[in-house]
Design goal:
37% helix, two-stranded antiparallel sheet, 10-stranded mixed beta sheet, 437 residues, 14 strands, 15% strand, single chain, alpha/beta
């Protein structure tokens, strides 16, 4: 483990008193420093996603447009650009490196600098101070964001090496997908280090003590829209809090709604809103814990914006989220079923929630004859037409992202900042010295 040497993280912004007010997310009676810190990242969740989610959740039977958890907790904005060598548009690895270390690096970097030298991370600092650490994500656990908090590597693509390096992270809780990257030999090494390894989600309820390595899918967890409201991220978040809270010195937890980004890359608005709903539910789990514990800070942000989502498009002043509520499965799942069924028109109409026109069915038929992926793309575009959703990219964009926070220290994150500022502020709130047992 890397020694947490001087990293340029200032301690000057530490709050000296609890000065909350009714209009603040800072509790009125709380310690100046949080005992626990929870970082939540909506991967790819640019501002249009939280706006879309507000309208997606709106009750059409009321005049009021109801607030969401994002509206309640909003405190500021953040820029996301990587090191200059990579321009203005970041990838998840560079942004996660900034959020985990307080330093800019190149796209693809996993907590190494532009010279590929390891950078001390928030999790490593927390460990040296006696805090428990953990991650709970919906992607593979060794994907870019969790990797930047738990490992160091010159490339995010080195999944096997990153999985191996998690042995040295000493993390108390690791929950998510990624079974294919953990060989039997590697799992045996985790077990030898005292980890309980589980691979069935139902086993999570039976875990009562850290350390635990929970790998619940070959790669990603199921899309929320296909998962019968099982709220896997919410349950992993609650379990991680329960386990990490056993450390009397406190903990640092990373929670990522990883698949918001994946849906954004696919320009898949129905699936994206399902992932937003799952992430919001996990935030509400944390929000309730923050209210009860009074000594826990939560900071929520996105690593970047994905897809250039537009809530309204085509010169029409409308957006129709009611269409999305009728979609009963992700477009890739609908396509898979339709390709395998001779009565594919009925399959599509029942799962997409509306009946396409004859011309639209002709386009879908042409796509179906080419296979699953072309039909999936055609279905996504059709849902965009009916909901009047727009996209500008299949990649990332450079727009600023929102910052949400609650708990002791939340006021530090108000206003505009850069993603390295978020990391430095969080690090400034860690204990000054390890608490002696």
């Amino acid at each position: 483990m890397i020694s947490p040497a001087a990293t340029g993280s200032p301690n000057s912004n530490v709050p000296t008193a609890a000065t909350g007010s009714p209009n603040s997310n800072v509790p009125t009676a709380a310690p100046a420093r949080p005992k626990n810190i929870i970082i939540m990242i909506g991967d790819g969740m640019g501002p249009a996603y939280t706006s879309a989610y507000r309208y997606y959740k709106d009750n059409p039977d009321t005049e009021e447009i109801e607030q969401t958890v994002f509206d309640r907790l909003l405190v500021g904005m953040s820029s996301t650009y990587p090191a200059s060598v990579s321009g203005y548009v970041t990838d998840s690895a560079a942004s996660a490196t900034a959020l985990a270390t307080g330093f800019k690096s190149y796209n693809g970097a996993i907590s190494v600098d532009t010279e590929k030298r390891p950078l001390p991370t928030l999790m490593e600092k927390a460990k040296t101070l006696g805090l428990a650490t953990g991650v709970a994500v919906t992607s593979q656990v060794n994907h870019a964001t969790p990797a930047a908090f738990l490992a160091h590597n010159e490339s995010r693509r080195n999944y096997i090496d990153i999985a191996q390096s998690y042995l040295d992270s000493d993390a108390d809780v690791i929950l998510g997908g990624g079974q294919q990257y953990f060989s039997d030999s590697l799992l045996a090494q985790f077990t030898a280090k005292g980890y309980q390894h589980i691979d069935d989600f139902s086993q999570l309820d039976m875990v009562t003590n850290p350390k635990v390595l929970g790998l619940f899918a070959d790669v990603q967890l199921p899309w929320a829209i296909n998962d019968n409201q099982s709220h896997k991220l919410s349950k992993m978040t609650q379990k991680a809090i329960d386990l990490l809270s056993q450390n009397q010195q406190g903990f640092v937890l990373l929670v990522e709604g990883s698949l918001i980004d994946w849906a954004g890359h696919s320009n898949d608005i129905a699936t994206a809103m399902g992932e937003m709903d799952e992430f919001a539910a996990a935030i509400e789990v944390v929000e309730q814990f923050v209210r009860q514990s009074k000594d826990t800070l939560v900071v929520i942000t996105a690593d970047h914006n994905t897809g250039g989502l537009s809530v309204g498009a085509n010169d029409k002043y409308e957006w129709n989220p009611a269409v999305l509520h009728k979609v009963k499965a992700s477009p890739d799942e609908i396509a898979s079923r339709a390709v395998a069924d001779n009565h594919w028109q009925d399959v599509i109409a029942s799962l997409i929630g509306f009946t396409p026109t004859a011309a639209e069915y002709t386009l879908l038929d042409n796509a179906r004859m080419q296979g699953n992926e072309p039909l999936t793309i055609a279905l996504r575009k059709l849902i965009d037409v009916y909901s009047n959703t727009g996209w500008t990219s299949g990649g990332h964009t450079a727009v600023d992202v929102q910052v949400f926070s609650s708990g002791p220290g939340a006021r530090l994150f108000s206003g505009h900042q850069d993603n390295v500022d978020i990391a430095n502020k969080v690090m400034s709130l860690l204990p000054l010295t390890a608490v002696k047992q």
